[in-house]
Specification:
The chain is mostly helical. The protein has helices at 3-13, 28-33, 35-47, 51-60, 71-75, 78-83, 120-126, 131-138, and strands at residues 86-88, 94-96. 1% of the residues are buried.
């Protein structure tokens, strides 16, 4: 990133050349110190444009950017899949791969989350409840 060039280009993109003279944003350090005010301005400026307009303007003003993908889009990202960051479960659902690896132990693969009440009876059994008690408790 090039803070001076990118700041200049961002101000031009939003037609905010007047901010070149604003002391709050004169340097990258000052922009950091005044981040709340700057974020409010950026939110206002970007809200006036749609993604198609923003994409064209960012390209036109030579600014590096990317949209934040939805969860569904991230799970289909070819680079994440290729790198092994995404795991495919037995039912075809994709999820984040387990990032933990302990040397000498097999890596635990992610699994589907349980359905509501799926393990209730087993938990009650492990706690010492008999089948009649479990049935009474789960009917509530």
């Amino acid at each position: 990133l090039e803070p001076v060039r990118d700041w200049t280009n961002l101000c031009r993109l939003l037609a905010w050349e007047h901010l070149f003279e604003d002391e709050r944003f004169a340097t990258a350090a000052l922009r950091g110190q005044n981040a709340a005010a700057l974020t409010a301005l950026l939110d206002e400026g970007f809200a006036a444009l749609d993604m198609v307009q923003l994409a064209a303007l960012f390209a036109e003003h030579d600014l590096i950017w990317s949209n934040v993908p939805s969860t569904e889009e991230a799970a289909e990202d070819p680079q994440l899949i290729h790198s092994g960051a995404i795991a495919t479960l037995e039912d075809g659902t994709r999820t984040i791969q387990n990032p933990v690896h302990v040397e000498g132990l097999p890596k635990t693969q992610p699994s589907r989350f349980p359905g509501i009440g799926e393990h209730t009876a087993k938990v009650f059994e492990e706690l010492g409840y008999d089948s009649a008690q479990i049935e009474k408790l789960t009917k509530r």
